[in-house]
Each structure stands twice: as structure tokens, then as C-alpha cells.
Amino acid sequence: MTNRIQLLPDHVANQIAAGEVVQRPASVVKELLENAIDAGATVVTLVVKDAGKTLIQVIDNGTGMNVTDARLAFERHATSKIKAAEDLFNLHTKGFRGEALASIAAIAHVELKTKTEEDDVGTQICIEGSEVTSQEVVVTPKGSTISVKNLFYNIPARRNFLKSNPVETRHIIDEFHRVALAHPDLGFTMIHNGSDVFKLPSSNLRQRIVNILGTKTNEKLVPVTEETAIVKVNGFVIKPEFAKKSRGEQYFFVNNRFIKSNYLHHSVAAAFQGLVKDGAQPGYFLFLDVDPQSIDINIHPTKTEIKFDDEHAIYAMLRATIKHSLGQFNIAPIIDFNKDNGFETPYAYSKKSPKAPTIEVDRHFNPFKTDGEQANISFPYKREKTPAWEALYTGINSKSSEIGAANTIDTTGLQFESDAESGQLFDENAADNTHATFQLQNKYIISPIKSGLLVIHQHLAHQRVLYEELLKNITVQEAVSQQLLFPLCLSFSKKDVQSLAKVKEQLEHTGFVFSNWDKEEIEVSGIPVSVLESQASEILNILLQDLSNEVPDASFSLNDLLAKSMAKSMAVKTGVAMHIAEQEHLVHQLFACKEPSVSPDNRPVLITMDVNDFDKKFN
User: Fold this and answer.
1) In the predicted model, what is the mean pLDDT of residues 520-539?
2) Does 334 map to a domain?
3) Alpha helix (H) ranges present in 416-534?
4) CB count, 10 Å around CB of 323?
5) Is the pLDDT of residue 325 over 70?
6) Please, which residues have CB within 8 angstroms of residue 601's CB and are 6 or more apart in sequence?
7) Is residue 208 within 8 Å of residue 178, measured between CB atoms?
8) 213 and 196 inside one domain
9) Which residues contact 289 (CB under 8 A, 6 or more apart)?
10) Mean pLDDT, all residues of the chain
11) Which of 159, 314, 338, 472 is 20 to 30 A from residue 458's alpha carbon, by CA?
12) 266: three-class secondary structure by DSSP
């Protein structure tokens, strides 16, 4: 019987490891930037072409490597970061497993140029699919320059799973932001397709945040600082009034390493409870310094998840620290325990005993006696004569078409008003009311039809109406806009402005008019007719959130995505009361659409309930 278990070849093992380490071009960017920081670089340059599919190059001025180290760096589990298993719980570097370069070299063409300060010349190594094709001496400055070309060239299936270039570029920018925020004392530069995207000089944390997200961010930041025996917290949180519905500006760093933690995010959300609107997400840039022995980093291939020894204490400490900062800077109300002299007892009254207040009442007052009988009773307060209760109902005008008021006379001769009757709700002439509509719980529009009832979801129905209208305006380019008396100045980050620039033409076709377009600010002088001035910022923010998920390459798909996003943000929301005329107008608009039965996201808009179904309920 032949042996069934065999050792995998090195190139196959490297490709399997690459599946864990390298998910997309942004993963390569993360590993190379972290290696440059671990090498002691003070200036790091990232060069990207075609969203990293063609070229990813990282240039640093770190310590560099000699000939032997340069060759060993591409071997599996070769690293200078740890030497024993105990070092895994005392890490002070970014990388430690020694699989990154070996995994990258297995699925791409890699070129390394490196030189130490002591050497006169450097080393150049070229690797293709884990095989070294050349190694020679080269003249290069101190540090390392590593170029990754043709990513996934030997794994076409993995390359086909990559998203469009704008989406992959945003992932690369996100990784660049995370590394740059973690090390504000270092200088970073990013170049994409030959143009500078970011040029970040060495600075402090606040300035680094402003350089990345825009100058308007400075006024939004609230400092957070606290130091305890368990954890040291510093950084910034964004003021509650600037909270967004997307979870973009949320960064956690533990020992200068970016992590993702829903548990810690819940702690921040608890600190902002009652300060942000429902559905809004607080923004934060928080750095936690803990003992390296109290955390375990080696629980996830991308090292973005960390296990804490005492996460409950960190949760409570983080929440209390943020609450204290929000109160300290008058963002949230706080309890002041300082004594106010105004509440102290004066010295002259300190030895006097308090006296109970006296209350005077009329013990002879009888509410059942007439005013004449009460006249001989002296009382300091005069009770005004109140009119009879029947007079409270006089002067009420009712529309004869809606309310029928009936008067009845009993045997004693006293006249009373009966309860008002609604002629529309229980009208005997039901045939005249077949097209009437009414609203159920400010969410559904109910309309009687011949076979029973028609139930329409008002939010989804309005989405369908707006979607077809917007898609038509974008395609035909005949949208009508309303000019604003005072233009709106909307601030966005550089990344968001670049995303909006890709759909600027389509936005103008929907009715938006842009009078100024800068790198960090957009001036809107006109908006679509159906949009309120207060909705313009929210529409663009929701559009950015949808664009961050996927940007189709085809123009029609882009128009479709834009129409869906704007229809979703402009549609009447659930819980909004609508008048009868508005309900009927929406129903008429819905049935004038090409696809009235489904929303733009293929959700059912309306359902019908047959009369027979009601009859079965009463049997």
C-alpha cells in the first residue's frame, strides 16, 4: 500500500500561506510598510500603480540588510523579530512570524534593493514564484526598496476575485492611513499612478489627523488622556454633532498596532450614549498602551485582532475616560462636586431654629352650597365664578361633510350634545369611498380595492418613484435644480472628495450645481428640486458610504448605484405622517412606474389582502 500523506512542495506551501497573508493588494502594502517601520525608517514612500495590481513599491531609509539577511528574508519563518516562543508575549515590533515576504514572493515578481550603512554597495535580488532568478551587487542608498509586480500572476483565480481599481485603491489608502496614524513622528508619502496622493511630514498626532482628513477636522477633535496601572489611553474623539452614519473614522491602536474590536467599540458607544443620534456612529482615534505580556497578538493571520487578559477592566476604563473628556471640554453635562457658596446658610441664621410655614384654609367652605350661601363666609381669596359645563362645548365648528353633530333632548327638558360621528370612517355609502386611503402606524398606506385591501410600504414605494425619476434624469440629462440663496460649504476628507469627483458629472445631471470644488471642500450652489437644503449633506454622506462598498466600472452600473443611493436617502422615512392628498399622490406615482411592485433593492413594495382571507378569520 502506498503512502497517502506527503510533504507539500515549498512553492505550494508558500501559496497556501499567501492565501492567509495576502488577500488583496492592500495586504501587501500593510506588510511592506510595517517592515519599513520595524527597520527604523524615518521616511517611507509608497508607490502604487493600477491599484497595486501592476506595482507596489515601498522605499525606506531604515537600517537595510546585508547579503545574507537579504537572501534569508524570503525564506519561510525567517525573522529577526523573535528568537524564542516566550518572545511572542513581549512583542515590540509589527511583524514576527516571518511569512510575509515568502508569501508575497510566491505569488508575484519581487525585486529587493537593500544596503546597510556599513557596506559600500548594496544587494539586488529578483524572485519570481518563490524562485530566485538573479542576485547581484547594486549601487543603492542606505535602506531598502522592495517592488512587488504583477500580483497573483500565477494564480488567475485569485486575481479574478479582486474588485475594481477604485475599490482596491481605497483599501490601500485605508491601510496607509492606519500605519501613518500609528506613527505620526515618521514622514509618509503615497504616489498613485504618478501623482502624489498624500505627503505627510513628521508631526504630532493632531496634526497628522488633520493632514489626512482635512483642515476642518481640527475643530471636531476632543482630546482623551488617562493613565492607570492597567492601561494608558490617549488620542482624540470626534464631537457628537459630527457623528456620521458610516463607521469610517474609527481607529483603535494597541501598542501602536491597529486593531479591530467590537468589544472596545461598544465601550466607546456607551460613552456617547444619549449624545449622538440614533444610527449615528461616533468617530475616534484612540491609542491604548498596555503591557505586552497582557495581550496575545498571534490569534489572527492579519494580526488585527488582539486578546486581552483583563478586557473588562479596559472596557470600563475606556468608557470612563471618554465620558470624563466629553464633560471636561463641555461636550456633555457633568456633575460638579465643588461647593457653591450661594447654598450655604448665612452666619446670622446659623443658630436660629427653623419655623414651619403656616397654611390658612377656609374650614367653612362647602363646595355644594350655592354662591349666595357662601357669600357670608369670609375668605381671603375670592373664587371666580366658572361658567356651566355646557358652555365649554359652544362655539365648536364642525364641517358638515366630515362630522355630523346630533342633538338629543331627554324627558327632563335638558339638552345635551352627543359624541361626534365621523362621516368618512363609517359612511353607509361605501361605494363613494372606494378610492380613499389611510395610513397605518405612519408606515403603511392602506387602500381599498375591489378584491380586498392593498397595503403599500410608503418608504419603499417612494424609493421606487425617486429611483426611476433620478435614473431618467441622469440618462436624459434634463434634471431641474433650485438655486440656493447662500451656497453650502461642505467639508470632506481628501479620499471622500476623490470618490465624489468620480460621480460629479452624474450628480450634476440629477440637479446638483457645484460652484467650487477643492481638495477638502465642496461648495454647492444648487440642489435638486425635490431635495431640501438640510438634506444635501446627508445625501452626499450616504452616497459616499455606498460608493465605499463598490464602484462599478460600467457607466450604467454607476448611474444605477447613484440613483439607488439618492433615492434611499431622499425617500420619505418610516414614521412620517402623510396627509390624504400626499398618500393618494404617492399611490398614483407608484403605479405610473415601470416596476411598481418591487423597490430598487428588489424588496416587495406592496401586498394585497383578499376579502376571503378576512371571511375565514370570522368563521
Assistant:
1) 85
2) no
3) 458-476, 494-501, 504-510
4) 18
5) yes
6) 463, 564
7) no
8) no
9) 231, 232, 233, 234, 254, 255
10) 80
11) 472
12) helix
Mean pLDDT of 428-447: 70
Give the pLDDT score at 295. 80
The full length of the chain comes to 619
In angstroms, the CA 159 to CA 155 distance is: 7
Backbone angles phi, psi at 41, to 5 degrees: -75, 150
- C-alpha to C-alpha distances, 576 to 443, 445, 588, 601, nearest whole angstrom: 7, 12, 19, 21
- For the cut 90, the answer to whether the pLDDT of residue 113 exceeds it is yes
CATH number of the domain where residue 69 is located: 3.30.565.10
Q: What is the pLDDT of residue 244?
A: 82
Reduced 3-state DSSP string for 107-148: CCEEEEEEECCCCCCEEEEEEECCEEEEEEEECCCCEEEEEE
Report which of 419, 456, 408, 490 is spatially closest to residue 590, judged by C-alpha positions: 456
Mean pLDDT of the region 517-537? 84
Report residue 85's pLDDT band, with 50, 70 and 90 as the boundaries. low
Residue-wise burial string across 97-132, b where 16 or more C-beta atoms lie within 10 A, e elsewhere: bbbbbbbbbbbbbbbbbbbbeebeebbbbbbbbbee
160 within domain boundaries: yes
- Quick one: pLDDT band at residue 358, thresholds 50, 70, 90? confident
Extract the C-alpha cell encoding 543.
Answer: 452616497
CA distances (Å), origin 178, targets 15, 104, 181, 196, 259 = 26, 21, 5, 18, 9
Torsion over CA: 567, 573, 574, 577 (sign): negative
d(CA 493, CA 283): 14
The cell numbers describing 616, all together, are: 375565514
Amino acid letter for position 613: D
Among candidates 555, 316, 582, which has minimal Cα distance to 461?
582
Grid look-up 428588489 returns 602
What's the rounded Cα separation, in Å, for the pair 355 and 352?
9
Q: In this structure, is residue 118 part of a structural domain?
A: yes
pLDDT tens digits, residue range 267-313?
999 999 888 887 788 899 999 998 888 887 766 666 778 888 888 88
Asked whether residue 603 is assigned to any structural domain, the reply reads: no
Degrees to nearest 5, angle at CA 88 with 83 and 93: 85
| Cβ neighbourhood burial of 429 (10 Å; 0-12, 13-18, 19+) | exposed
Number of domains in the chain: 3
Here the cell at position 337 is 462636586
- Give the pLDDT confidence score for residue 191 in this predicted structure: 93
| Domain housing 134 | 10-200
Q: Residue 572 is part of a domain; what is its CATH number?
A: 3.30.1370.100
Query: Which cell is 484 given?
Result: 440656493
Closest to 93 (Cα-Cα) out of 23, 173, 183, 201: 183
- If residue 49 lies in a helix (H) or strand (E), which one and from where to where? strand 43-49
